[in-house]
Amino acid sequence: MEKAYKFRIYPTSEQETLLQKTFGCARYVYNYYLNKRMTAYQTDKTTLDCYACSADLTRLKKEKDWLREPDKFALQSALRNLDDAYQRFFDHVQKGEAPGYPEFKSKHDRDRSYTTRFTNGNIKVLDKHIRLPKLGLVKCRISRQVEGRILSATVSHKSSGKYFVSITCTDVVQESLEPTGAIVSYPENQRVARTAVRRESRLRVCTRRLPISAETQFIS
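The structure corresponding to this sequence follows.
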């Protein structure tokens, strides 16, 4: 079973600067490869998938050194998000629905986020901090215990100015509920039951008022 835990984080000014750079780099990679995929298809009907873009990202990072500064998994996540957008587009086309073609991301978007992947203990929830790739220890308000095995972390910046992190975990044990023997009835079943009781009550009243012969005919 997978489960997500969302906490508010309080980055330092230095960490906040790196976060904003990461948001910007992830947006740049998304837009760059959206344009590249559009151009390739318009030129010779070539379709670039996520793997081709990921391989090309290595070349792009050599050309633009500033793409090496943020978390590398955030950039890979941007490519996966773009591929998911294309998959949704193709699904709508196959179903004969009005497709919504992937759109470029704007730097003026009020809500920003990126996702990083767990590997070699690079994400860890501590008492009052959380360890994140490139950022190190970030002050965090841990409101509940994190269970299971960490898969990823999504850092978001809301229009209110607050920062949050959402930890996705797997192998979370679901608590089993012991049977109590109580009968659970839904509102619709309760309404039907009350109606049946009222009808039965009226039936008894009517049968008491009928003559014996008429009562026999009514019951039969």
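The helical segments are 13-44, 50-63, 72-94, 187-209, 212-219.
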